[in-house]
Structures are given as C-alpha cells and as structure tokens.
Design brief:
Elements lengths: L1 H9 L8 H16 L11 H6 L12 E11 L4 H11 L3 E10 L2 E11 L4 H10 L3 E7 L8 H14 L3 H10 L3 E5 L8 E3 L2 E5 L5 E5 L7 H17 L7 E5 L5 E7 L4 H10 L2 H8 L6 H9 L4 E7 L5 E10 L2 E8 L8 H15 L4 E7 L3 H8 L5 E6 L2 E7 L9
Antiparallel strand pairs: 1-3, 1-4, 2-3, 5-8, 6-7, 7-8, 9-10, 10-11, 11-12, 12-13, 14-16, 15-16
Helix pairs in contact: 2-4, 2-5, 6-7, 7-8, 9-11
Pfam families: Acetyltransf_1
Organism: Streptomyces reniochalinae
GO molecular function, one term: acyltransferase activity, transferring groups other than amino-acyl groups
Length: about 400
Amino acid sequence: MADDSAAKKTGHKAAPPRPWHRALRAARAGWRAWCPAAAPEVCVGEATEAAASPGQRPAPAGARALWRVRATVREEPGSLARVCAALAAGSVDVLALQTHPLGDRTVDEFLLRAPACLQAEDLAGALAEAGGTDVHTERADAHDLVDTPARVLGLATRTALDSAELPLALRRLLGRCRIRSVPGDTPAQGTLEGTSLRLPDPAGGEIVVERPHVPFTPTEYARAHALVEFDACLGRRTPRHTDALALPEGLSVTVRRADEGDLEAALAMHARCSHETLGRRYHGPVGDADSYLRHLLSPRFGRTLAVESAAGELVALGHLLWDGDETEAALLVEDAWQRRGIGSALLRRLTNLAREGGCHSVYAVTQASNTGMVATMRGLGLPLDYQVEEGTVVVTAALEPAAVAPH
C-alpha cells in the first residue's frame, strides 16, 4: 500500500524487486536463521559474551577472523552472486577469490574476513543455503593476505634459490596437504586422482601430494606441475652462505648449509662419535647410523645445517625434515664439541628456517633420558607440548608466524 501510494503521488509505478535484492533478502534471512542470537549485521558483543563457554574469553566487539573457504557452485549466471550476497548478509568481507572451472561446475575459493563469533559451520551452512556444495572451511593467517601473483612469484623465487624449498613451496601453493618424496616412475605429465597428485621428482622418484577430503582441481594440478618443471630446469641448488659462531672459550666455528656433497665428511664425523651419542641421535642400532646420512642430507627431504671447525672438519649436523605436513628437528654434535652451545645455536637457526617456511610447529624426538635435548628445546622460549611413550619423548614447539610484508 505504501508503495502504491508513493507511486500515485509521483506519477510513477513502483519498480518490481530486482533479482539481486531478492537474493540479498533471502541471504539475510538465512544468516538470521544461522545466528539467531546475534544482531542482524554483526554478531559480537553481548550476544557473543553470553554464548561464550565458562572460562572462555569472548571475542572483543568488532573482532574479525580470517577464513579460507571453498564451495562448488553450478556454472550458471547468478550462482556466484548468490554466494556473495549470502556472505555480505553476514557482514563477511571477500578479500580474494579464485575460480577453478570444472565444466558444468566451478570451485570458488575465497579468502574471507568474518566476524570473530562466526564458526566454520555458520559459514558452511550459509553457503549451502546459497547453493554451494562440497563446502570446506579452514582458518587462514596473515600469509594468506598476500595477493596471489605476489605469493606465487615469492614461492618461485625461494624455489629458484634452494632445492629444499620445493616441498614447502608446494605446500604453500596448495594449502594444507601432505607431501612425500618416494621411489616411483610417474609419467612426465604426472597424474591427478581426486585428493592425490603424483609428479615426477627432479631429484629422482616421484612427489606425492595428498590432501584429505578436498579433491585437487585441474587448475591446482597445472600450478603444481609448472612449479616442479621450474625446479627441474634449474638443477640442484644449495645456498652457500656461512655464519661465524663464537664459542664461550673464544673459539669460532662456521655454520653453513650442507647437502649430499658433505656425505664423506659426515661419515667421518660419525666415526669420531661415541656409540652413546649415535644411539641418542638415531634411536636404533648404531651400526645403521651411516645408512641414514644420504637421506638426511638430501635437500628433497629437508634442510641440513653443518658446523665446521677451523680445521675444516664437520663437528655437528642439524636437520630440519619435512614429515608430511609436520616438521622435525634433529641434532648431532660430536662428543668433543658438546656442551659449548652448538646444539642450541643450531636449533635456533633451524626453528627460524621453519618459521620462514610457513611451518606452524617443530618437533623433536628423543629418549626420555636425553635431558640435554629436552633442555635445548626449552631454551627456545616457545610454548612446548610433551608426549611421553615407552621411554621416548616428543617435544613440539609452537611457532609464531613470520612477519608478512605489506602489499
């Protein structure tokens, strides 16, 4: 009636509701259903405080959280508009969008900034109401704020400088996934099978990338394949930067990257180590210790730092190993050089490398009787988690994200 009256007064007929407005009204109704206790625009403040569990600090008013969200929609006009309208109705900002065409469907990948009170199920439910299927949500961090071209160029640059960067670069390119280098004979073009990618490893064998529950798209396969081909064209690369490490008694040693070219020197160091030292490091028969070195020194499985004496002998090794989507740190210091701060210095450097590579944590496995390694982990000054089982201790240090340059 009000519209008819206004139309008569102005001499114009009231315009019918536009499809976009209908979608927006429907989306707002959907958000009210998902957040019934919240204000229509932003569900923070008193509603959030009332809903917080005992002892849990409520999110401050106006707080926002970053999310990575995937949803599959039909490839038809208006499908993306309905999804964006649903997000806008919940005061959710779309910071970035990537599309992965799949014929009659498209996978839309969003970087979102949402009110902190919204949970994964709230986002997934609203997108499902807007026509999205196979919705997957995970929390994002500051690294995801870098725009996609800059991020890809950064990954390519890091890969060009260091062979050990390829597994990390693939992980950063494809999101949360497990990456393994295994023996195999994958064809040059690689294979894509649902939640698994297989790519020829430039170092030999194949690289297996697995991501539970979220299938890879042909677009992601093409990106990963291009990065592996780029790595293969450059050959083996190990940065040759060296650092001087001053020891308490006034001696100085050199810390540098190591690779398979250091195998002979590492074997010689093994020969100078006691059975007790080798046993604490490898947790198995001492006679098998030498057989592990070639794998440990390969840049495909992680990074190795070597400590070299003034006489040119290796006296310590620190390994940062890519273990699926986790990262392990391991140390070996020759007996005559122990208790001089070398292990602590190596572990700090390995932790910094892990942080720069986007790793969220680093763990060390040691014997319960190896109080020196536990103390070295505690010396990092980071939050630690301890797991003890049958005389073995796993100490995990949580890492703070490295600073991200503004863009």
